[in-house]
């Protein structure tokens, strides 16, 4: 099995829609650190699981310097973003989304 891991650094804003009172309901930003893991049993014609540039294009291109509430049709929690990444990037098996040093969500297929 081949594995590639891409690290992305993204600046983006969001607010959360919650059923309890929280400061996170107010628009605020994070410098998100995201690790995307892709796997394949065999490599493509270019000798890759997936081009690192393609991963960046799909995730960074969609999220960086955006208000995530405008970009996504779901509540942009770290968990939901991790799931979206796994569903969006070909061969993705794991996405780790870090809002800050202490707050990380992981989705694994
Ligand atoms: N399970 C989740 N919990 C929370 C999420 C999330 O995506 N998944 N997101 C948030 C907010 O985005 C919020 O911005 C996090 O705020 P932050 O101040 O960084 O976190 P803490 O309140 O834990 O404060 P620290 O001082 O950093 O511990 C909230 N929860
Ligand atoms: Zn936040």
Fourth CATH level, the homologous superfamily: 6-pyruvoyl tetrahydropterin synthase/QueD
Structural class: alpha+beta
Task: Just give the CATH class.
Answer: Alpha Beta
**Rounded Rg:** 15 Å
Mean pLDDT, as a whole number?
Answer: 98
- Helical fraction equals 10-25%
The total tally of domains equals: 1
Which ligands occur here? the ligand Nc1nc2c(c(=O)[nH]1)N=C([C@H](O)[C@H](O)COP(=O)(O)OP(=O)(O)OP(=O)(O)O)CN2, zinc ion
Shape: elongated
Output the number of helix runs.
3
Low-confidence stretches: none
Estimated share of beta-strand residues: 35-45%
What's the order of the H and E elements? EEHHHEE
Distance between the termini: 15 Å
Largest sheet properties: 4 strands, antiparallel
Strand order of the largest sheet: 1-2-3-4
Number of DSSP E strands: 4
CATH topology (level 3) name: Tetrahydropterin Synthase, Chain A
Q: What is the CATH architecture descriptor?
A: 2-Layer Sandwich
Family: Belongs to the PTPS family. QueD subfamily.
InterPro entries: 6-PTP_synth/QueD, 6-PTP_synth/QueD_sf
GO molecular function: 6-carboxytetrahydropterin synthase activity; metal ion binding
Organism: Megasphaera cerevisiae DSM 20462
């Amino acid at each position: 099995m081949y594995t590639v891991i891409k690290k992305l650094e993204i600046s983006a804003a969001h607010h959360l829609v919650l059923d309890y009172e929280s400061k996170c309901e107010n628009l605020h930003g994070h410098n998100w650190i995201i690790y995307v893991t892709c796997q394949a049993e065999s490599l493509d014609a270019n000798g890759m699981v997936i081009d690192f540039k393609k991963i960046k294009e799909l995730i960074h291109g969609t999220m960086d310097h955006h208000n995530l509430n405008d970009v996504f049709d779901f509540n942009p929690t770290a968990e939901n973003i991790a799931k979206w990444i796994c569903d969006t990037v070909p061969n993705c098996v794991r996405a780790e989304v870090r809002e800050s040093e202490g707050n990380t969500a992981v989705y694994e297929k």
